[in-house]
Amino acid sequence: MNPPQPSVERLRQLTRREFLGRSGTGLGLAALAGLLPRDSAMAASGLPALGAHFAPRAKRVIYLFQNGAPTHVDLFDYKERLIRDHGKSMPDEYIGGKRFSTMTGKADGKRLLAPVEPFRQHGQSGAWVSALMPHTAQIADRLCFVKGMHTDAVNHAPAISLLLSGSQIPGRPALGAWMGYGLGSMAENLPTYAVLTSVTRNTSCGQIFYDFYWGSGFLPSRHQGVKLRGSAEPVLYLSNPDGIDRTTRRAMLDDLAALNDQHLHTWGDPEIAARVAQYEMAFQMQTSVPELTDLSREPESVLKEYGPDVRNPGTYAYNCLMARRLVERGVRCVQLMHAGWDQHNSITTELYHQCRDTDQPSAALVLDLERRGLLDDTLVVWGGEFGRTPFIQGSLEDRVRWGRDHHPYAFTLWMAGGGIKPGISFGETDDLGMNVVRDPVHVHDLQATLLHLLGIDHERLTYRFQGRDFRLTDVHGTVVRPILA
Questions:
Q1: Looking at the DSSP assignment, which residues form a beta bridge with residue 403?
Q2: pLDDT higher than threshold 50 for residue 343
Q3: 408 — alpha (psi -120 to 50), left (phi > 0) or beta?
Q4: Where is average pLDDT lowest: 9-13, 95-99, 176-180, 232-236?
Q5: Cα 319 to the chain's mean position, in Å?
Q6: pLDDT higher than 80, residue 13
Q7: How far is the first Cα of the chain from the last one, in angstroms, to the nearest whole number?
Q8: How are beta strands 193-199 and 333-339 bridged, if at all?
Q9: Rg of the Cα trace of the chain?
Q10: DSSP string, 241-260
Q11: What SS3 class is residue 365?
């Protein structure tokens, strides 16, 4: 998916080294290059979207990313043996040769920990869901639980980067950036890729939100995610300064665009065009963002569905409602990131807080999309970067400080809408929830499947950088066809 480009576009893709080599080595030119927001022409800007390879099932994605790794064995992956063998040592044959975080140390001898709350089966599908997630349980027949997930990373930032960008090393484009590059925008006055973050109040296990979780990497910078702040002013500096009205601002931007266009044709730096596009988007968002965040026309019944925190900017409930409002206004990818799931010593306390804050809004979002006719072509994904160990971290005698460590070998996520088969559980772990024993799904397989639902062949959506064609799935990935509707 890398068509030959005309010479002018080749000029716009010059690397920094080529740019300086062709332009001379004077200090003035070096200073000019240093003033640009990014020091390389990593990709062309102004290129049209490449388009889908085949008919898509989904037009947009809402990724409800749970930073810190929810514990699959306490929420969705019911194991009777964990209850029966609670307190017994972890059998050696389950952990041989496996790598764990330094907080676990040697896993042999660790004692098994039963789920902290009971499980029940729900709906016609009979999906197992913990009592900690009663609202999710009510929509079980609309969901596809993928229980065979596994990953390569054992720590948070590398695992999140791998899942969202295809590489444990930061610097690759995130899923939403690839979507914008491949499919283009559906909204004139909102970004293609929006990001919202939240943290459970008073949590002691929050995760850091690194900007590379929604970065554009080597793609044009106009494809990077736009983070909407959890406050009364979601985007800084959108409002005009005192004494500047909208007409004046429009004229200023037109003049600036003309100057930048001259500069672009002189120097061929693609980030100049990206800067012009961002100026224009900011101007459009002066009117679209206030309308987006105005909840006065939302029915009280809808607000109630999302829970008591829905009116509070920066909460997970508020962000879920914003996600629905964003996609119905044409945003292609909305990435919610909620931190606080890293429960090394707080399974009996903070797990309850996390479920309380996220369960009801997540379910309400699915129902709200369905009611508005948006669920059929909106793919919703809920999950974290890995799972948590079936054995305890800490002392079994100190229940208040029970915890579970990082677990890359098996975890669960759920998906809804957008061409996903509802009411099924795909994949299976062993009787302790330790290893995947049937229908494994690697994170690259998940990425391939998400792109497939969007009408994209993951092997053909590529971008040439530093002499190599890169893609979201790196050199891996297989579409998980059994979960497609």
A1: 393
A2: yes
A3: alpha
A4: 9-13
A5: 13
A6: no
A7: 26
A8: parallel
A9: 24
A10: PTT--HHHHHHHHHHHHHHH
A11: helix
Backbone angles phi, psi at 7, to 5 degrees: -60, -35
Q: Kindly tell me the sign of the dihedral angle through the C-alpha atoms of 239, 181, 63, 59.
A: positive
Distance of alpha carbon 271 from alpha carbon 263, whole angstroms: 11
Tokens of 455: 């009408």
99: Cα separation from own chain's centroid: 25
Taking alpha carbons only, the member of 221, 259, 274, 270 closest to residue 16 is 270
User: What are the Cα distances from residue 415, in Å, to 85, 105, 245, 412?
Assistant: 31, 33, 45, 10
Q: Report d(CA 20, CA 332) in Å as an integer.
A: 36
C-alpha closest to that of 168 among 182, 154, 180:
154
Nearest to 3 by CA among 460, 459, 448, 451: 460
Q: Alpha carbon 275 to chain centroid distance?
A: 25
pLDDT digit string, tens, across residues 138-165: 999 999 999 999 999 999 999 999 999 9
Domain 58-234+309-483 matching CATH 3.40.720.10: the answer reads yes
The two structure tokens encoding residue 482: 């059994």
User: What element of type H or E holds 194?
Assistant: strand 193-199
Could you give the CA distance from residue 13 to residue 8 in angstroms, rounded to a whole number?
A: 9
**pTM to 2 decimals?**
0.86
Q: Phi/psi at 180 (nearest 5 deg)?
A: -65, -40
Tokens read off for 81: 């043996």
- CA 326 – CA 316 distance, rounded (Å): 15
CB 481 within 8 A of CB 421: no
Contacts of 2 (CB under 8 A, 6+ apart): 462, 463, 464, 469
In the block, tokens 């499980």 appear at 119
123, 128, 133, 139 alpha-carbon torsion, rounded to 10°:
-30
User: How confident is residue 202, by pLDDT bands cut at 50, 70 and 90?
Assistant: confident
User: Residue 127 is encoded by which pair of tokens?
Assistant: 């999906």
Residues in contact with 326: Cβ distance below 8 Å, sequence separation at least 6, in sequence order? 190, 194, 292, 334
Domain ranges, ordered by start, for the chain: 58-234+309-483, 236-292
Residue pair 415/379 in contact by the 8 Å Cβ criterion = yes
Tokens of 120: 């029940």
Residue type, 345: N
Torsion angle of C-alpha atoms 348, 351, 353, 354, degrees rounded to 10: 180
At residue 155's C-alpha, the angle toward residues 150 and 160, to 5°, is 65
Q: Is 142 helix (H, G, I), strand (E, B) or coil?
A: helix
Q: How many residues would you count in the chain? A: 485
Strand partners, 111: 89
User: Alpha-carbon distance 124 to 272, whole Å?
Assistant: 55
Q: What's the burial of 323, exposed, middle or buried (CB within 10 Å: 0-12/13-18/19+)?
A: buried
